[in-house]
Structures
1.
Amino acid sequence: MNLTRREALAILGTAAATGLGGRFGSTLAAQAPLFRKGAIIRTVLKDLPPEELASGPSLFHEHLSMRFPLGAKEHFTDDIALMVEEARAAKADGIAAIVDGGHADMNRSLDALKRISAESGLPVIASGGYYMQRTYPADLATKSVDQIADELSKEAAASRFGAFGEIGQQGGVMTDDERKVFTAIAKAHARTGLPIFTHNAYTGTRPTQNPVPKDSAIKQLDLLLANGVKPANLAIGHVCCLDDPKAEIPIEIAKRGAFVGFDRVTIAIVPDAQKVTTIMAIVAAGHASKILLASDFSNARGLKKNGGGGLGQAVTVFAPLLVKAGMPELTLKSILVDNPRQFLAFGPL
Ligand SMILES: [Zn+2]
Ligand SMILES: [Zn+2]
């Protein structure tokens, strides 16, 4: 099968981008997933019933506002008018909502996210928490797990977080402080119901002096589940940066009920062709309902302004590769449209 970009976009139902007429409406009406009564997805502007995001893909880990690495004097997301334009373009590509994976540790601006969402009309979900050891505020080391959990729960309510993320570790083995943060996030999740997505340090197919143990994603899963996290609202992130074409680790995560984050598609830590192979192996093992796609958007090269695939590049650039590899249309739609809503929908407690 040889699809043009136009045909691939049409299959993805991006009617506005192609003018060919999306097919989401008709198929999803019959296939709509069940959400708990009263469950919501919390955007920066309002709480939405998950059914309201049935029109297109939601991307669970991108970046619309950050100033990173720490100490950086400027970042392309400083230009909020530009990010509004890019969000409008993503909406035109059929994207229904985007989760910003940043937090204070990355100098993410909540006001910027609100403005981007209000001016573009694209629903944006803000996240919160702590990133990884080298970005932690100095006083974190002196705080207890309960103190951190308490502060995060309050901040989540005050700042309208729709998720905790990205919660990470900087190396192959968690530091004591990282373990403390993961435990506190689990406790804050129990109090708020907010979904969690993590960051792993997997180094892909590139040679490295410090290889990250293959089971580091499983250790994150173990720690969070042991502290009471509901796997239905948990995504273990950057699993696509693990060199694991047989999908052993993703399948183990899915079997335990959590989502598998393929949230660095288009980033060549593992080549995209291999990510496709791994995803097809997860699907073949019966776990399509646990795959989440996103691109961890953080490079100006991806901007539409610069000729890239835009904020929706997980859909505009990567998803057509899955179609070419033979993924059935309904499976792809369900991965892009249903899985992120199920991950993001939470409550009532
Ligand atoms: Zn990350
Ligand atoms: Zn990220």
2.
Amino acid sequence: MNSRRGFLRDLAAQAGSAAREAAARSDLATAAAQVGSAAREATSEPSAPEALALSDAELERYGRQLALPEWGLAQQAAVREARVLVVGAGALGAPGALYLAGAGVGRLGILDDDAVELSNLHRQLLHFTPDVGVPKAESAAAKLRFLNPDIVIEPYRVRLVADNAAALVEGQDLVVDCSDSFATRYAVNAACCAARVPLVEGGVTGFAGLVMAVRPGETACYRCAFPAAPAAAPSCAEAGVLGPAAGVVGSLQALEALRLLGGLEDGLLGGFLQIDLLEPAFTRVRAMRRADCPDCGAL
Ligand SMILES: [Zn+2]
């Protein structure tokens, strides 16, 4: 397995190197062809799994991420096969879903039961002025399909609550929680822990944000880190928020999601990133699993 992984890394590095050299000559077609050539060589190997075969269009669309030494054909194939649920198509879900769709997540669920309001538009950039009144799940799905018609977008016009969380999380490879309430976050966390589905949590208020990655049963879950909701948690309507602050947090959630799907380094597993964008300052905080955690203590 390790030698196989090493082979894929070498292959990805070769393809990435070829792409960078060609791109430096502004010869994008050559870059795509060379990456494609490397991919075809890989798939012609008897031991190469079928999932690694990417079309020429995919190799061109994803060429700049495939050029990364950390992101090769194996990672691209993994995200293409992945089923990811984004909970909330608002301030965090908009950038989060855009980056996940752009990166090629094969099946992307967008869950939101709200309709677009004028006051959303300064930070929820998946929705445009003519979308006011349109269900956010549908508005988001329409834009994401334009962005990447090669993936499946599944809009869900429902609110995730404790009663339906298990059914919504079942069968997902990853959940990205972009909701805006502690009740929803705890419901998502409990369902993900029960189903052992990896989770990326996030939140933003004012200039402050937080991102946390969870691998249930292995690393601290959201409730391990935050056993109870704060007594007074102001909403964005009360505390205000600048659009780019939400953009930073949602983008970091997408990055953590891709990291987990692609099997990169551990990132924000086992803790969270505390973000103060007024300062600005980013602080990593470790979080330990709690044996008495009602969500993951028994796993
Ligand atoms: Zn826990």
3.
Amino acid sequence: MAINRQILLAETPKAKLGPEHFQLRQGEMPAPKDGEVLLRVRYISLDAANRAWMQGATYRGAVVAGTVMAGGAVAEVVDSKAQGFAPGDLVFADTGWQDYAALPAKALIKVPRVEPLTHLLSVYGIAGLTAYFGLLNIGQPRAGETVVVSAAAGSVGSIVGQIAKIKGCRAIGIAGGAAKCDWLVRELGFDAAVDYKAGPVFKALKAAAPDGIDVYFDNVGGDILEACIALMNNRGRIACCGAISAYDGPAPASGPRGVPGLIVVKRLTLKGFIVTDFFAQRDVALADLQAWVAAGKLKVQEDVIDGLENTPRALIGLLAGDNRGKRMVKVA
Ligand SMILES: NC(=O)c1ccc[n+]([C@@H]2O[C@H](COP(=O)([O-])OP(=O)(O)OC[C@H]3O[C@@H](n4cnc5c(N)ncnc54)[C@H](OP(=O)(O)O)[C@@H]3O)[C@@H](O)[C@H]2O)c1
């Protein structure tokens, strides 16, 4: 019988996430029950939100210490006791960080076999769809407007800026470090990039966006959100996608600080969303993303780390900003 390696969240972190919070366990390959499918995990998606799930319930339940670490993955069906799934089929599912998972058919999303398979987690996966729906449906950018995105060199942010360019906007990224900022402008075609680690964001962003900000795609919250709100134009739109600045520590204190007045005076719209809200429109989004990739208008940046045992390190590094584009771990 094949061995199933599993990475557990051994202890809930109280401050920064470290390797000591994880534990590798070897178990037996699970057997699917009626209505279930046995999956071989191929690529695990690393997401900043993985860390937020350890802080408590969000749009999903909290990840509890002593259980297999949760996480989305592209996986292959190896055995099926459910109608509609056969060995060889590919799915996206929350398999968790392990070699094999037996899951009910209703928890699986069937995905086509594309080349390379990694695109199912990057541009054609949650990252690409989040960028697409968050920018276009929530941000509603118009040609000529200025779009700012934070965590701009990450998986979602790098796609947001490129879609903004495709839509005829001025795209400005906020990212950590000169090398990432340079890459955004030279390789991905952003009009400007602000290094939030080099000094106050407000001053640099004001210089990069002399006409103000019309759409802010917020991946980070905190000080960067505050700086952007101060630079928003009247009737600007803020797509609230995530709050990375608050993930890698204790659960954050509640309440926005000092911003409601500006929201009123500038008639801003701040709107949160979860990518699955828009899944009914997924085919249209995927067709657009595919066409942009094929035309060379959208560059796909992937950061693939080999080996299930390296998954904790891959997440810890992502939270510290050592990824460019979509990070994932190749399991098999
Ligand atoms: N709403 C939804 O449905 C949905 C779906 C998917 C993802 N998301 C959100 O999308 C965002 C991007 O997540 P991802 O998984 O794709 O990660 P990612 O952008 O690939 O990587 C995270 C990046 O965040 C940056 N970062 C870390 N700490 C930061 C801080 N304190 N301030 C500013 N930047 C910081 C790092 O880059 P630097 O080097 O630039 O610091 C790091 O590379 C997250 O907020 C996530 O929760 C939302």
